[in-house]
C-alpha cells in the first residue's frame, strides 16, 4: 500500500525524471545559427550593428533561434561571407550590398547609389516602391533571403592626403571606395581600389593610397584615418546613404516555422532606424572631436568636382539600364522611378526644413 510519504517521494522523483527528460527535448528544439560578418568584432558602426542583430533575433525568438556572431576572419574572411552563407557554411551574414558587384551589378543598387537615395528613401523604395520583391528575386539566384537591417546615413567623400581644388586633381588618384561609387571614380580617371578599413589605414600610411572613403566620422575615427590624412571632404555624393544588410541561407530560412521567420524579418526591420540614428548621433559627436582634438580640416568638394562626379555617375547608371541581364535593368528602372518620385517632393520636405534652419533668427542652443 502506498503511504502518503512514499507517494510524496514518488511524486518528487517523477517530477525530477520529467525535468530530466524535458531538458534535452528543449535543447533539441533550439536552433543555432552562425552569423559571419564583414567587420572586426564590435567595430563602431557596422560591427556594433551586427551584434545588435544577432542579439535581437535571439531575443525575439524567445531563445529558440540562437545566433552566434563570428567576426571577419574567424570562420571566413569578410569578403567571403556572401559565398559562405550561399553555400551553407554559415546560416546568416551581416555586410553591405556594395561588396557584391562581382555577383551582379543589380545587387549594388540595394546598398547605395551615387547621387541616389538617402537612408529613409532607401527603406521607402524597398518597403513601398517594389524594391523588396526585386531584392528577393536577385538574391534567390544565390540561395539567399535578404533583409535591410541598418544604414550609415550620408557617407563622406573621404580622407585625402592633399587638397582637391579641381577635377584634374582626381586623375590618377589612388582611392579606396566600393560599389557603384568605384565605377563612378574610374570614369573620373581615379584608380579605385576596394579594401577593408584596416587595410585602408595601412595603405594611406604607406602611401599606397592617396585618399579613401570608408563610412563617416564615428567609424572612421575609430580606425584612425585622421592620423595619416588630415583633409576630410564632404559631401559623400558617391554614397548619399549606405544600407547594411543581412542575408540568410534560403534553405535554412524556409526550414523555420512561420513565427521564427517573422522573428528574423522583424529583427532586421526593427533595427533599421535605431542603427541609422545611432550612426547620425555618433557621427555628429565624433566630427566635433576630430576637428577640436585631432586638427582634422573639413573641406567641401568644389561644385565643378561634384558636377563631374554626377555626370560620371549618370553614365554608370545608364550602362546599368543597358545591362544584358533583364533583372538588372528592372532593378535600375525601379530605383530611378523611386528617385524621381522623391526628387519631386524632397525640395518641399527635407530640403525645405534644412533651408529654414539656416535662416538668421534667434533660437536657443
Task: Describe the secondary-structure layout.
Blueprint: H1 4-29, E1 31-37, H2 46-60, E2 65-70, H3 81-87, E3 92-95, H4 105-108, H5 119-128, H6 131-140, E4 144-151, E5 158-160, E6 174-176, H7 179-187, E7 191-193, H8 197-206, E8 211-212, H9 217-223, E9 231-234, E10 243-249, H10 250-254, H11 258-294, E11 297-300, H12 303-321, H13 326-345, H14 350-357
Instruction: Indicate the percent of residues in helices.
Output: 40-55%
Question: What is the rounded distance between the termini?
Answer: 84 Å
The CATH superfamily of the largest domain bears the name Bacterial extracellular solute-binding protein, family 7
Total strands: 11
Question: Would you kindly provide a written description of the structure presented here, covering whatever features stand out?
Answer:
The chain is α/β, with parallel strands linked by helices and 365 residues long. It has 2 domains: 31-154 and 241-280, D-Maltodextrin-Binding Protein, domain 2, CATH 3.40.190.170; 158-239 and 294-344, Periplasmic binding protein-like II (D-Maltodextrin-Binding Protein, domain 2), CATH 3.40.190. The protein is 51% helix and 14% strand. It is built from 14 helices and 11 strands. It has helices at residues 4-29, 46-60, 81-87, 105-108, 119-128, 131-140, 179-187, 197-206, 217-223, 250-254, 258-294, 303-321, 326-345, 350-357; strands at 31-37, 65-70, 92-95, 144-151, 158-160, 174-176, 191-193, 211-212, 231-234, 243-249, 297-300. It has a 6-stranded mixed beta sheet, with helices on one face. The protein has a 5-stranded mixed beta sheet with strand order 2-1-3-10-4. Strand 6 (174-176), helix 7 (179-187) and strand 7 form a beta-alpha-beta unit. Helix 2 (46-60) runs antiparallel to helix 11 (258-294) and helix 5 crosses helix 6. It is globular. The protein starts with a helix and ends in an 8-residue tail after the last helix. The relative contact order is 0.15.
Amino acid at each position: 500500500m502506498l503511504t502518503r510519504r512514499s507517494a510524496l517521494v514518488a511524486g518528487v522523483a517523477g517530477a525530477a525524471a520529467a525535468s530530466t527528460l524535458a531538458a534535452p527535448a528543449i535543447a533539441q528544439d533550439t536552433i543555432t545559427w552562425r552569423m559571419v560578418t564583414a567587420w572586426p568584432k564590435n567595430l563602431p558602426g557596422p560591427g556594433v550593428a551586427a551584434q545588435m542583430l544577432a542579439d535581437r533575433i535571439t531575443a525575439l525568438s524567445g531563445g529558440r533561434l540562437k545566433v552566434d556572431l563570428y567576426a571577419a576572419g574567424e570562420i571566413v574572411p569578410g569578403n567571403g561571407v556572401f559565398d559562405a552563407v550561399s553555400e551553407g557554411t554559415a546560416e546568416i551574414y551581416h555586410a553591405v550590398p556594395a561588396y557584391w558587384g562581382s555577383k551582379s551589378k543589380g545587387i549594388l543598387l540595394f546598398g547605395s547609389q551615387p547621387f541616389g537615395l538617402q537612408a529613409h528613401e532607401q527603406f521607402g523604395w524597398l518597403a513601398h516602391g517594389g524594391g523588396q520583391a526585386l531584392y528577393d528575386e536577385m538574391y534567390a539566384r544565390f540561395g539567399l533571403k535578404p533583409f535591410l537591417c541598418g544604414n550609415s546615413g550620408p557617407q563622406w567623400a573621404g580622407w585625402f592626403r592633399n587638397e582637391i581644388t579641381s577635377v584634374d586633381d582626381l586623375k590618377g588618384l589612388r582611392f579606396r571606395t566600393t560599389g557603384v561609387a568605384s565605377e563612378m571614380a574610374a570614369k573620373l580617371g581615379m584608380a579605385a581600389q576596394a579594401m577593408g578599413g584596416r587595410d585602408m589605414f595601412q595603405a594611406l600610411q604607406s602611401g599606397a593610397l592617396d585618399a579613401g572613403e570608408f563610412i563617416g566620422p564615428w567609424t572612421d575615427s575609430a580606425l584612425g584615418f585622421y592620423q595619416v590624412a588630415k583633409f576630410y571632404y564632404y559631401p559623400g555624393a558617391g554614397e548619399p546613404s549606405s544600407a547594411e544588410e543581412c542575408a540568410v541561407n534560403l534553405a535554412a530560412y524556409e526550414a523555420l516555422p512561420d513565427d521564427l521567420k517573422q522573428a528574423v524579418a522583424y529583427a532586421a526591420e526593427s533595427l533599421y532606424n535605431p542603427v541609422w540614428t545611432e550612426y547620425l548621433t555618433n557621427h555628429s559627436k565624433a566630427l566635433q572631436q576630430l576637428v577640436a582634438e585631432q586638427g582634422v580640416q573639413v573641406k567641401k568638394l568644389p561644385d565643378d568636382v561634384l558636377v563631374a562626379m554626377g555626370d560620371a555617375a549618370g553614365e554608370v547608371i545608364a550602362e546599368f539600364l543597358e545591362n544584358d541581364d533583364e533583372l538588372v535593368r528592372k532593378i535600375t528602372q525601379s530605383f530611378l522611378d523611386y528617385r524621381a518620385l522623391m526628387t519631386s517632393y524632397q525640395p518641399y520636405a527635407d530640403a525645405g526644413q534644412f533651408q529654414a534652419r539656416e535662416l538668421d533668427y534667434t533660437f536657443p542652443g
